[in-house]
Amino acid sequence: MVQTIEKSLATFLEGDLGEVEEAIRKAAATEILPRFRQLAADEIVEKNGPHDLVTVADRLAEEQLTHALTALLPGSVVVGEEAVHADPSVLGALGGDAPVWIVDPVDGTRQFVHGDPGFATLVCLAHRGELLASWTYAPALDELAVARRGGGAVLNGIPLRSGSPEPGRELTVAISHYDFTTDEEKRVLATLLTDGVAPRPCGSAGLEYLAVARGTLDALAFSWENAWDHAAGLLLVAEAGGASATVAGEPFRITGGNALPFSAARDEKTLGHILGLLASAG
Helix or strand or coil: residue 197? Predict the structure, then answer.
Protein backbone atom coordinates (compact mmCIF):
# COMPACT_ATOMS: atom_id res chain seq x y z
CA MET A 1 0.00 0.00 0.00
CA VAL A 2 2.81 2.42 0.95
CA GLN A 3 4.68 1.65 -2.27
CA THR A 4 1.49 2.28 -4.27
CA ILE A 5 1.05 5.68 -2.63
CA GLU A 6 4.68 6.61 -3.26
CA LYS A 7 4.43 5.60 -6.91
CA SER A 8 1.23 7.58 -7.33
CA LEU A 9 2.84 10.61 -5.70
CA ALA A 10 5.93 10.38 -7.89
CA THR A 11 3.80 10.17 -11.03
CA PHE A 12 1.72 13.12 -9.89
CA LEU A 13 4.76 15.29 -9.24
CA GLU A 14 6.16 14.52 -12.68
CA GLY A 15 3.12 16.20 -14.26
CA ASP A 16 2.62 19.91 -14.85
CA LEU A 17 0.45 20.34 -11.73
CA GLY A 18 -1.77 22.76 -13.64
CA GLU A 19 -4.89 21.12 -12.22
CA VAL A 20 -3.82 22.17 -8.73
CA GLU A 21 -3.57 25.78 -9.85
CA GLU A 22 -6.99 25.50 -11.45
CA ALA A 23 -8.49 24.11 -8.24
CA ILE A 24 -7.02 26.94 -6.18
CA ARG A 25 -8.19 29.62 -8.60
CA LYS A 26 -11.67 28.08 -8.74
CA ALA A 27 -12.02 28.00 -4.95
CA ALA A 28 -10.97 31.63 -4.76
CA ALA A 29 -13.27 32.66 -7.61
CA THR A 30 -16.33 30.91 -6.22
CA GLU A 31 -15.97 31.20 -2.44
CA ILE A 32 -13.52 34.01 -1.62
CA LEU A 33 -13.56 36.85 -4.12
CA PRO A 34 -17.37 37.19 -4.32
CA ARG A 35 -17.33 37.83 -0.54
CA PHE A 36 -14.38 40.24 -0.58
CA ARG A 37 -15.68 43.59 0.75
CA GLN A 38 -19.16 42.03 0.74
CA LEU A 39 -19.17 40.14 4.06
CA ALA A 40 -22.18 40.41 6.31
CA ALA A 41 -21.63 40.68 10.05
CA ASP A 42 -23.00 37.19 10.65
CA GLU A 43 -20.45 35.75 8.20
CA ILE A 44 -17.54 36.69 10.51
CA VAL A 45 -16.82 34.75 13.71
CA GLU A 46 -14.15 35.10 16.41
CA LYS A 47 -12.27 31.87 17.09
CA ASN A 48 -9.88 32.56 19.95
CA GLY A 49 -10.31 36.30 20.41
CA PRO A 50 -11.08 39.55 18.57
CA HIS A 51 -8.00 39.29 16.35
CA ASP A 52 -8.47 35.61 15.41
CA LEU A 53 -11.26 35.63 12.87
CA VAL A 54 -12.86 33.13 10.53
CA THR A 55 -15.41 33.79 7.82
CA VAL A 56 -17.78 31.75 5.73
CA ALA A 57 -15.28 32.18 2.88
CA ASP A 58 -12.57 30.40 4.90
CA ARG A 59 -14.78 27.42 5.64
CA LEU A 60 -16.32 26.99 2.20
CA ALA A 61 -13.05 27.50 0.32
CA GLU A 62 -11.34 24.89 2.50
CA GLU A 63 -14.17 22.43 1.92
CA GLN A 64 -13.96 22.92 -1.84
CA LEU A 65 -10.18 22.58 -1.87
CA THR A 66 -10.36 19.46 0.27
CA HIS A 67 -12.61 17.72 -2.24
CA ALA A 68 -10.70 18.94 -5.29
CA LEU A 69 -7.16 18.23 -4.10
CA THR A 70 -7.81 14.74 -2.76
CA ALA A 71 -9.55 13.88 -6.04
CA LEU A 72 -6.45 14.98 -7.97
CA LEU A 73 -4.18 12.75 -5.88
CA PRO A 74 -5.99 9.60 -4.68
CA GLY A 75 -4.79 8.46 -1.29
CA SER A 76 -3.86 11.96 -0.19
CA VAL A 77 -5.34 13.77 2.81
CA VAL A 78 -5.82 17.40 3.80
CA VAL A 79 -4.68 19.27 6.88
CA GLY A 80 -6.56 22.55 6.73
CA GLU A 81 -6.67 25.35 9.26
CA GLU A 82 -10.41 25.15 9.78
CA ALA A 83 -10.48 21.34 9.94
CA VAL A 84 -7.80 21.41 12.64
CA HIS A 85 -9.74 24.06 14.56
CA ALA A 86 -12.75 21.73 14.56
CA ASP A 87 -10.71 18.59 15.30
CA PRO A 88 -7.07 18.97 16.44
CA SER A 89 -6.40 15.26 15.80
CA VAL A 90 -6.34 16.09 12.07
CA LEU A 91 -2.80 17.39 12.65
CA GLY A 92 -1.58 13.83 13.06
CA ALA A 93 -1.72 13.36 9.29
CA LEU A 94 1.37 15.56 8.96
CA GLY A 95 3.48 12.69 10.27
CA GLY A 96 1.63 9.89 8.48
CA ASP A 97 2.40 7.89 5.35
CA ALA A 98 -0.18 9.54 3.11
CA PRO A 99 0.70 12.59 1.01
CA VAL A 100 -0.81 15.61 2.71
CA TRP A 101 -2.17 18.85 1.33
CA ILE A 102 -1.59 21.63 3.86
CA VAL A 103 -4.21 24.31 3.28
CA ASP A 104 -4.84 27.81 4.56
CA PRO A 105 -7.92 28.92 2.62
CA VAL A 106 -7.64 32.59 3.57
CA ASP A 107 -4.28 33.52 5.05
CA GLY A 108 -4.69 37.02 6.39
CA THR A 109 -8.34 36.74 7.36
CA ARG A 110 -8.13 40.02 9.25
CA GLN A 111 -7.00 41.77 6.06
CA PHE A 112 -9.77 40.02 4.12
CA VAL A 113 -12.41 41.12 6.63
CA HIS A 114 -11.22 44.73 6.50
CA GLY A 115 -11.22 44.92 2.72
CA ASP A 116 -7.43 44.85 2.40
CA PRO A 117 -6.26 42.90 -0.70
CA GLY A 118 -3.24 41.56 1.20
CA PHE A 119 -4.57 38.05 1.81
CA ALA A 120 -3.74 34.73 0.17
CA THR A 121 -4.74 31.13 -0.32
CA LEU A 122 -1.88 28.81 0.64
CA VAL A 123 -1.49 25.19 -0.44
CA CYS A 124 1.51 22.92 0.08
CA LEU A 125 1.92 19.25 -0.81
CA ALA A 126 4.09 17.35 1.65
CA HIS A 127 5.00 13.75 2.41
CA ARG A 128 6.46 12.51 5.68
CA GLY A 129 7.40 16.04 6.64
CA GLU A 130 9.11 16.87 3.35
CA LEU A 131 7.75 19.86 1.41
CA LEU A 132 7.30 18.92 -2.24
CA ALA A 133 5.33 21.67 -3.98
CA SER A 134 3.56 24.84 -2.95
CA TRP A 135 1.16 27.47 -4.22
CA THR A 136 0.79 31.00 -2.84
CA TYR A 137 -2.15 32.74 -4.48
CA ALA A 138 -3.18 36.33 -3.81
CA PRO A 139 -6.53 36.44 -5.63
CA ALA A 140 -7.25 40.14 -5.13
CA LEU A 141 -3.78 40.98 -6.47
CA ASP A 142 -3.82 38.35 -9.24
CA GLU A 143 -0.46 36.92 -8.15
CA LEU A 144 0.35 33.21 -8.04
CA ALA A 145 3.71 31.91 -6.86
CA VAL A 146 4.53 28.23 -7.37
CA ALA A 147 7.50 26.26 -6.05
CA ARG A 148 8.65 22.70 -6.62
CA ARG A 149 11.24 21.00 -4.49
CA GLY A 150 14.44 21.11 -6.53
CA GLY A 151 12.64 22.82 -9.40
CA GLY A 152 12.78 26.49 -8.49
CA ALA A 153 10.05 29.05 -7.92
CA VAL A 154 8.04 31.30 -10.21
CA LEU A 155 5.66 34.22 -9.78
CA ASN A 156 3.04 34.43 -12.52
CA GLY A 157 5.35 32.23 -14.58
CA ILE A 158 8.47 34.40 -14.08
CA PRO A 159 11.40 32.86 -12.12
CA LEU A 160 11.82 34.15 -8.58
CA ARG A 161 15.22 34.86 -7.03
CA SER A 162 15.52 36.26 -3.54
CA GLY A 163 19.01 37.68 -4.07
CA SER A 164 20.89 39.36 -1.22
CA PRO A 165 20.44 42.68 0.58
CA GLU A 166 22.72 45.49 -0.48
CA PRO A 167 25.75 45.66 1.86
CA GLY A 168 25.36 48.26 4.57
CA ARG A 169 21.65 48.78 3.99
CA GLU A 170 19.19 48.51 6.88
CA LEU A 171 17.48 45.11 6.89
CA THR A 172 13.68 45.09 6.72
CA VAL A 173 12.22 42.26 8.79
CA ALA A 174 8.58 41.22 9.25
CA ILE A 175 7.89 39.81 12.70
CA SER A 176 4.97 38.17 14.48
CA HIS A 177 2.22 40.74 14.93
CA TYR A 178 2.07 42.17 18.43
CA ASP A 179 -1.62 41.30 18.69
CA PHE A 180 -0.72 37.60 18.56
CA THR A 181 2.39 37.44 20.78
CA THR A 182 2.98 36.82 24.47
CA ASP A 183 5.13 39.07 26.63
CA GLU A 184 7.99 36.58 26.38
CA GLU A 185 7.73 36.43 22.60
CA LYS A 186 7.73 40.23 22.48
CA ARG A 187 10.89 40.25 24.61
CA VAL A 188 12.72 37.91 22.24
CA LEU A 189 11.56 39.70 19.09
CA ALA A 190 12.64 43.01 20.64
CA THR A 191 16.26 41.94 20.07
CA LEU A 192 15.66 42.96 16.45
CA LEU A 193 15.17 46.58 17.56
CA THR A 194 18.81 47.38 16.92
CA ASP A 195 20.98 49.35 14.54
CA GLY A 196 20.82 48.04 11.00
CA VAL A 197 17.50 46.23 11.42
CA ALA A 198 14.01 47.62 10.85
CA PRO A 199 11.36 45.21 12.20
CA ARG A 200 7.67 45.68 11.49
CA PRO A 201 4.53 43.65 12.32
CA CYS A 202 3.68 41.08 9.67
CA GLY A 203 0.55 40.93 7.58
CA SER A 204 -0.43 37.76 5.75
CA ALA A 205 2.33 35.27 6.52
CA GLY A 206 2.12 33.79 3.04
CA LEU A 207 2.61 37.15 1.37
CA GLU A 208 5.51 37.98 3.68
CA TYR A 209 7.23 34.79 2.52
CA LEU A 210 6.53 35.84 -1.07
CA ALA A 211 8.13 39.22 -0.36
CA VAL A 212 11.28 37.47 0.88
CA ALA A 213 11.31 35.20 -2.18
CA ARG A 214 11.04 38.17 -4.54
CA GLY A 215 13.63 40.21 -2.62
CA THR A 216 11.40 43.04 -1.42
CA LEU A 217 11.66 41.93 2.24
CA ASP A 218 14.97 40.86 3.73
CA ALA A 219 13.77 38.44 6.40
CA LEU A 220 10.97 37.41 8.71
CA ALA A 221 10.90 36.16 12.28
CA PHE A 222 7.86 34.28 13.50
CA SER A 223 7.01 32.89 16.93
CA TRP A 224 4.27 30.42 16.01
CA GLU A 225 4.44 27.19 14.03
CA ASN A 226 1.05 26.38 12.45
CA ALA A 227 1.96 24.34 9.39
CA TRP A 228 -0.68 25.95 7.15
CA ASP A 229 0.85 29.39 7.72
CA HIS A 230 4.42 28.38 6.92
CA ALA A 231 4.73 25.28 4.72
CA ALA A 232 4.02 26.93 1.37
CA GLY A 233 6.21 29.94 2.12
CA LEU A 234 9.16 28.00 3.45
CA LEU A 235 9.41 25.98 0.23
CA LEU A 236 8.90 29.12 -1.86
CA VAL A 237 11.76 30.93 -0.13
CA ALA A 238 14.05 27.90 -0.35
CA GLU A 239 13.42 27.44 -4.07
CA ALA A 240 13.97 31.16 -4.70
CA GLY A 241 17.43 30.86 -3.15
CA GLY A 242 16.69 31.89 0.41
CA ALA A 243 17.19 30.07 3.68
CA SER A 244 15.38 29.33 6.94
CA ALA A 245 16.04 27.84 10.36
CA THR A 246 14.82 27.91 13.95
CA VAL A 247 16.53 29.87 16.69
CA ALA A 248 18.30 26.61 17.56
CA GLY A 249 19.81 26.52 14.06
CA GLU A 250 17.69 23.55 13.00
CA PRO A 251 15.38 23.11 9.99
CA PHE A 252 11.76 24.01 10.69
CA ARG A 253 9.60 20.89 11.08
CA ILE A 254 6.01 21.12 9.84
CA THR A 255 5.08 18.40 12.34
CA GLY A 256 5.80 20.84 15.18
CA GLY A 257 8.00 20.83 18.26
CA ASN A 258 10.28 23.54 16.90
CA ALA A 259 12.52 25.84 18.94
CA LEU A 260 10.92 29.25 18.46
CA PRO A 261 11.12 31.81 17.06
CA PHE A 262 12.36 30.88 13.61
CA SER A 263 13.40 32.93 10.62
CA ALA A 264 13.46 32.88 6.82
CA ALA A 265 15.68 35.24 4.88
CA ARG A 266 16.89 36.15 1.41
CA ASP A 267 20.27 34.48 1.99
CA GLU A 268 22.26 32.51 4.56
CA LYS A 269 24.20 35.53 5.80
CA THR A 270 21.05 37.49 6.57
CA LEU A 271 19.49 34.45 8.20
CA GLY A 272 22.52 33.99 10.43
CA HIS A 273 22.43 37.62 11.52
CA ILE A 274 18.74 37.53 12.43
CA LEU A 275 19.02 34.22 14.27
CA GLY A 276 22.04 35.52 16.18
CA LEU A 277 20.09 38.50 17.42
CA LEU A 278 17.13 36.35 18.42
CA ALA A 279 19.38 33.90 20.25
CA SER A 280 20.92 36.76 22.25
CA ALA A 281 17.65 36.99 24.21
CA GLY A 282 18.79 33.85 26.05
Answer: strand
